[in-house]
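## Example pair
The file below holds two records. Each record gives the amino-acid sequence first, followed by its C-alpha cell line.
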Amino acid sequence: MVRREEVLVERPDLAPTWAQADAAFPVRVTRAVWEAMDPADPDDPIARQVLPDPRELDADPADLADPVGDAACSPVPWVVHKYPRRVLWLLTKRCHVYCRYCFRRGHAPGAQWDPSPEEWEAAAAYIAAADVEEVILSGGDPLVLKDAPLFAAIDRVGAGRVIRIHTRAPITFPERVTDALVQGLLARRPVWVVVHSNHPAEWTPQVDAALSRLVDAGLPVLNQAVLLRGVNDRVEVLAELSEGMVRRGVFPYYLHLTDRAVGNAHLRVPLSEARVLHDALRQRVSGVALPKLMVDPPDGSGKVDAAAGTGYEE
C-alpha cells in the first residue's frame, strides 16, 4: 500500500481534503495502481478514480444514501436478494482500493469490516436454503479474503449452483490472482469471475498476467465498467476498453451509469449523454465488444437496460 505521505509529495493540493475524505470513505492506493497512473496529473484517468477530490465533500441534491435500494432487499445482514433466482453475499466491506465513485460509499467500513461469526452463519444458512441458481460473492471485494475463507464460503453455498465472484482485485491488486486461487476456483466450478476495469491505462503487464491466469485456466471472465466523467466518457476510450477486453478473452458485460452515492456527483454522466455515447460505441465495435448500458434504480427493483429505445427513463 502506498503511504499518504508519498501521494502528497506528488499531489500536495490534496492535503486539506485527505483527512475529511478518508473519514467519510477510506482512501487507499495499492502499489500496482500507483505505478499505473501519473499521480501528479489531476486529470489522470486512474487518479480520478482513486484519489480524493474536494468535490466529494460537497452535497448534491441528487445524492442518495442507498442509491440502488439494497437495504430494502436484505433479508439478513450481509445478504441482498433482489432477483428470484440469484442472491448476493457481501463477504466483507474491505477493498484493496476504495474507488471514489463506489455506490456502497454509504456502507463505508467503520468498526465492523467483516461479518461476525453469527452473521456469517446466518447469511450462509439463508443462502443455502434459498431457491436460487446463482450466488454472487461481492463486498467490498471478496478477494480481500484469503483463499481458505473464500473457498469455505463457496463450499457452504455453492453445491449445484453457479458462483460469481465480483472483484476489482485483478486490476487493483493483481498479485492476488495466484495459481492457488485459480486452481481452487477451478475445483469449485461452475465459477465465473466478473472483474471491473474502467480504462485501458489500468492494463499494466501485471494486470494482463492476472487476467491471463484466469482466462487461460478456462474460467469465464466478464468485465463491468462504470461510465465516469473525465475517465472514460469518450467513445474512443470506451471502444479501446471494450475491444481490449475482447482481445484479452474477457467479455465486456455491462457499462453502468454511476449510481447517485453521496460524494460522487462530479463523476456522474447523465443518462441522455450516456445514451449518445453508447449509440456511438455501437457503431464502432462488434456485438461481442458492446456492453449493455445499465442503470440500477434506487427503488431496489434491479438493473435495467437503459440504452436508447429500451423504454427506460429516469
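Second record, same layout:
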Amino acid sequence: MASKLNALIVAAATGDVPQNVNFAWRISQLQTLLDKNGIAYDTATKGTPKSGVDLASMLQKGTVKIECWR
C-alpha cells in the first residue's frame, strides 16, 4: 500500500516542494486495517506461475485508490 505526501504542507514547513515521495505498508499492517474495519479481501494462493499478460490483467482488476479522511 502506498500513500502520497502533502506537498503543500511540506513546502510551507521546509521551503521546498517534495517530489516522488511515496510510503509503503507491510501486508500485515494492511490486513490489520482491513480486518478492524470489517473490509473483506482475498489472499493469494500459491499455484502455477502466470504470464506477464495474465499478471497485468490481474493487477488491473486489483488496483484501487484508497483515501483516508480525518
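Notes on the second record: Residues 1-40 form one domain. The first strand starts at residue 2 and ends at 4.
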